[in-house]
Amino acid sequence: MTLNHPELPGCVLFIHWSVEVSREGGVTPKINLLTKIPERALQLFPSQAVGGAAEAFHSLLRILGPEAALESVIRAVSLSQDT
């Protein structure tokens, strides 16, 4: 899944969701947030959390679970004012 905001061209968040199945039948979901942020944006806002978005997302996964973590990311980049 790819998320982007029209007012932030070049900034893209990719959500990569995969499932590993072991030979014993164990199922392990893996969800990663990958960012594509232009170097210029990182230079303009070095103290912002954009550079640590993947780590923050993994914290959300541990605290909220997968559904709520994904919903939080989608709301963060959406144009909707709904909360």
TrEMBL record:
<protein>
    <submittedName>
        <fullName>Centromere protein P</fullName>
    </submittedName>
</protein>
<dbReference type="InterPro" id="IPR027801">
    <property type="entry name" value="CENP-P"/>
</dbReference>
<dbReference type="GO" id="GO:0005634">
    <property type="term" value="C:nucleus"/>
</dbReference>
<dbReference type="Pfam" id="PF13096">
    <property type="entry name" value="CENP-P"/>
</dbReference>
<dbReference type="GO" id="GO:0000775">
    <property type="term" value="C:chromosome, centromeric region"/>
</dbReference>
<dbReference type="GO" id="GO:0034080">
    <property type="term" value="P:CENP-A containing chromatin assembly"/>
</dbReference>
